[in-house]
């Protein structure tokens, strides 16, 4: 086998692996389809941020499960992590194993990202000689070992290297100069887990062109840059999609707006903000959060709710401190997070008329509050109220979701059924009114305490600490109206902030 110039070998692990010997090839949900990043066959809009030390630094790793939720809260769901750094070897020299502690940690961190529907982008190798494996075959074994260690975990991508042209690959033994090894590693991943996305790249145009045309097993390219180039529209795409990794210190809010627009318009493009900090970089996440929020508002043409509007308020609620979140005329005060969301205003309610997978979020985010609304849903339909939802990622697992289902009226309580805190807790009793009647919901959040009143009866009264799945959930976020499977109506939507009132900020 020829040697290769492996830069930072970045594997993006996306779907779970079944040990390869007897596995039939099966189509991955996340894949490169028709030259684009896709979820099944629909373009996947991937935006992310780097998380240094998630595997290598014990202090960072121990906080990962909680701190990882800062990423979707800021708008990122693609999370870049590295398995090696100079002086920190992850694999045994022969590539066939690592310590049980490292193997378990890798699996746990990937599972934590996937829990909120994030996508891990995992860099396998570092070009520093201190991380060198003992042979070319050892690199193939290491790639297959990672796939096997993660087994059937969904939604991760593997990058062989994002620095194929790093001079570090020419030092030490073996010296890795030829791009053929990168392609061979990608082929080993494909054999172990057919259909998984494998990425490689570098800084120079020559390396990207070589990977584009001479590496059939590489599905997508990756390029580290000091500032946005593809996201600014300054560089054109080839046949393969590309992930642009950009130093956040060199970008502005407007730069991120342009990159967000580009990724939504073109399924061949994804981007990640990078940092040199050890662990999550709060400045990077604050910039991403501010920019993502303002981009969503700008893109949807949203305006804040009128603080003087009282359309949704019941008698006496204004004096109690409640604010109307629906004026009966339009969607002022709400931000549509996708072009496909099919929300309309009819008479005195907001309607969802067909399945699109989108959602409306409140213009402002809230910490502690009392939220009230009424809803109707048709039989066999699916919707929900997102509470303390993030800017991106799975709302029901970053904040939480009050499940609204068109279940039969005699249904028994369940964690995924009507009135539940989705995937956490069934309602204490079923209190749904007959189809065609309006249902009343009140959700009170104070710190980690949650109380839900459904049609006059308390069905939830708990603390986050009562459920392991709620342990690290966010205690601040947006209110969301879910568009999941059509035919639901919402009206009399109002909120009483407890403490800070964002409507007055």
Write the layout of secondary structure elements.
Layout: E1 9-11, E2 30-33, E3 36-39, E4 42-43, E5 47-50, H1 58-62, H2 64-67, H3 70-74, E6 78-82, H4 100-115, E7 119-125, H5 136-150, E8 157-159, H6 180-192, E9 198-201, H7 205-214, E10 220-225, E11 242-247, H8 253-265, E12 269-274, H9 282-300, H10 317-320, E13 323-324, E14 334-336, E15 343-346, E16 349-352, E17 359-366, E18 369-377, E19 382-389, H11 395-398, E20 400-405, E21 439-446, E22 449-454, E23 457-463, E24 477-482, E25 488-497
Parallel strand pairs: 5-6, 5-12, 6-7, 7-8, 8-9, 9-10, 10-11, 11-12
Antiparallel strand pairs: 1-7, 2-3, 3-4, 13-25, 14-17, 15-16, 16-25, 17-24, 18-21, 18-25, 19-20, 19-24, 21-22, 22-23
Describe this structure in words.
- Strand 15 (343-346) and strand 16 (349-352) form a beta hairpin.
- This protein folds into 2 domains: 9-299, TIM Barrel; 301-504, Exo-inulinase, domain 1 (Jelly Rolls).
- The strands form 4 sheets. Strands 5-6-7-8-9-10-11-12 form an 8-stranded parallel β-barrel, surrounded by 5 helices. Strands 13, 15, 16, 18, 21, 22, 23 and 25 form an 8-stranded antiparallel beta sheet that branches.
- The protein starts with 8 loop residues before the first strand and ends in an 8-residue tail after the last strand.
- It is built from 11 helices and 25 strands.
- The chain is elongated.
- Helix 5 (136-150) packs parallel to helix 6 (180-192) and helix 8 (253-265) crosses helix 9 (282-300).
- The chain has 505 residues and is an alpha/beta fold.
- Mean pLDDT is 89; it is low at 1-26.
């Amino acid at each position: 086998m020829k040697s290769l110039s492996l830069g930072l070998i970045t594997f993006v692990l996306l779907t779970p692996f079944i040990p390869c010997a007897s596995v039939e090839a099966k189509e991955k949900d996340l894949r490169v389809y028709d030259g684009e990043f896709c979820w099944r066959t629909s373009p996947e809009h991937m935006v992310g941020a780097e998380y240094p030390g998630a595997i290598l630094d014990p202090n960072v790793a121990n906080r990962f499960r909680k701190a990882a939720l800062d990423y979707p809260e800021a708008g990122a769901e693609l999370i870049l992590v590295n398995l090696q750094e100079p002086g920190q070897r992850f694999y045994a020299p022969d590539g066939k194993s690592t310590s049980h502690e490292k193997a378990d940690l890798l699996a746990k961190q990937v599972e934590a990202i996937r829990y909120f529907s994030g996508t891990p982008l995992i860099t396998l190798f570092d070009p520093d000689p201190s991380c060198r494996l003992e042979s070319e075959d050892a690199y193939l074994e290491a790639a297959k070992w990672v796939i096997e260690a993660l087994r059937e975990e969904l939604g991760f991508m593997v990058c062989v290297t994002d620095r194929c042209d790093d001079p570090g690959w020419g030092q030490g033994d073996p010296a890795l100069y030829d791009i053929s090894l990168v392609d061979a590693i990608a082929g080993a991943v494909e054999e172990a887990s057919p259909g998984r996305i494998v990425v490689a790249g570098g800084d120079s145009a020559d390396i990207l062109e070589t990977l584009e045309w001479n590496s059939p097993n590489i599905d997508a390219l990756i390029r580290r840059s000091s500032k946005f180039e593809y996201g600014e529209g300054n560089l054109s795409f080839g046949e393969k999609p590309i992930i642009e990794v950009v130093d956040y210190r060199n970008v502005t809010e407007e730069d991120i707006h342009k990159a967000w627009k580009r990724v939504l318009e073109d399924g061949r493009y994804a981007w990640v903000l990078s940092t040199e900090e050890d662990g999550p970089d709060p400045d990077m996440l604050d910039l991403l959060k501010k920019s993502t929020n303002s981009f969503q508002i700008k893109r949807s043409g949203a305006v804040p709710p009128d603080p003087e509007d009282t359309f949704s308020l019941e008698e006496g609620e204004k004096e109690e401190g409640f604010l109307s979140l629906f004026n009966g005329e339009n969607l002022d005060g709400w931000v549509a997070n996708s072009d496909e969301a099919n929300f309309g205003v009819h008479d005195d309610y907001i309607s969802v008329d067909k399945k699109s997978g989108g959602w409306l979020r409140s213009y402002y985010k809230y910490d502690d509050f009392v939220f009230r609304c009424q809803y109707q849903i048709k039989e066999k339909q699916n919707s929900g109220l997102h509470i303390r939802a993030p800017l991106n990622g799975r709302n029901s697992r970053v904040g939480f979701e009050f499940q609204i289902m068109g279940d039969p009226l005699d249904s028994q309580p369940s964690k995924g059924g009507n009135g539940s805190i989705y995937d956490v807790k069934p309602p204490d009793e079923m209190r749904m009114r007959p189809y065609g009647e309006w249902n009343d919901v009140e959700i009170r959040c104070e710190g980690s305490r949650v109380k839900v009143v459904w049609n006059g009866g308390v069905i939830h009264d708990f603390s986050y600490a009562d459920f392991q799945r709620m342990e690290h959930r966010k205690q601040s976020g947006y209110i969301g109206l879910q568009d999941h499977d059509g035919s639901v109506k919402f009206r009399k939507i109002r909120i009483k902030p407890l403490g800070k009132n964002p409507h007055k900020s």
